[in-house]
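Hi team,

As requested, here is the filled-out complex form for the zinc ion run. I kept the field names the same as last time so the parser does not choke. Let me know if anything looks off before we queue the next batch.

— J.
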Amino acid sequence: MRALPWLEPLLKQFSERRLQGRFPHALLLTGLPGVGKSWLAEQMVRLLVCEQPSEAGACGHCRGCELEAAGTHPDSRTIVPPEGKQQIRVDQIRAVSDFCSSRVNTQVSASG
Ligand SMILES: [Zn+2]
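And here is what came back:
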């Protein structure tokens, strides 16, 4: 049983696109506070880094899943507003842009 069943259709749609190798270049998750955006983003990341995803989701046992669970997956970055702030700073976005342009995402390129 999932923690946030109202987000299941979105996660299912994302999982199907993952299995088909069809992704948009970016996703923007918006909604009211407390609706589960962070949870949904975490589930999406797990699906992306999993080396053996299925319709049920990330396997939870492969190297990609273990690295993500440990917070050490080399293709994963989490950005949140600085403490006491409500917005992500421009320099944080620039750092992500540099990270993305300097990395080869082996997970996505290997599957699609
Ligand atoms: Zn996995």
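Two things worth flagging: The chain is about 45% helix and 0% strand. The helical segments are 8-20, 37-49, 63-69, 90-102, 106-111.

Thanks,
J.
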